[in-house]
Amino acid sequence: MDCESGADTSTRKRKLCRLVVLSFALLCILQATLNISLRLAFYSSDTTTTPDCEAIIKNLTKQQDMRMNELARYIQQGWIYFNHSLYYVSSTKNTWNDSREDCLQRGADLVIINSREEQNFIREFKKRTWIGLTDAEKEQTWKWVDGTTPTISFWDTDEPNSYEGTDEDCGEIFFYTRENSWNDQPCDSKNVWICEKKM
Fold first, then answer.
1. Please, what's the b/e burial string for 2-32 (b: 16 or more CB within 10 A of its CB; e: otherwise)?
2. Can you give the residue ranges of the C-type lectin domain (predicted)?
């Protein structure tokens, strides 16, 4: 059972809020810089731009605006931006399959961890969470929800192990205080989950 003090929860919420605000501010700065750079590049090099060139510039600006609006909408819904992906951390617990279904309904999937930076980012949530890793199709052949095999892994010592013969086909972050934090767990256990949507 996870017991958390009110102070820890409040501190975590403040840190998460700061991260969201900082991410949004950086994205706004990036958009403004891109808009200015594109306009300067196209207008300063040739003051007699053709209608086709002007259409391309307007289209690029419109696409950037749409992406920024989409990103802002996700952030307002509680998603967190990190390294070209959006992440959603559930506030309830569920089985691995039901957790994945929730992610799919949100237009995402359970998180796929492809780098040490992403692993450490996920650990910062300091929660036992489902990740998009399973060997349900073939025992000891771990695959991500997109069908790929892990190119990097962060299994804890002696994991995965199907503890005492238990059918543990789903991956989770369990030992989040250390980098090698992955554990195999029965899929019908209930955990918090993290969805990932590539941007």
1. eeeeeeeeeeeeeeeeeebeebbeebeeebe
2. 82-196
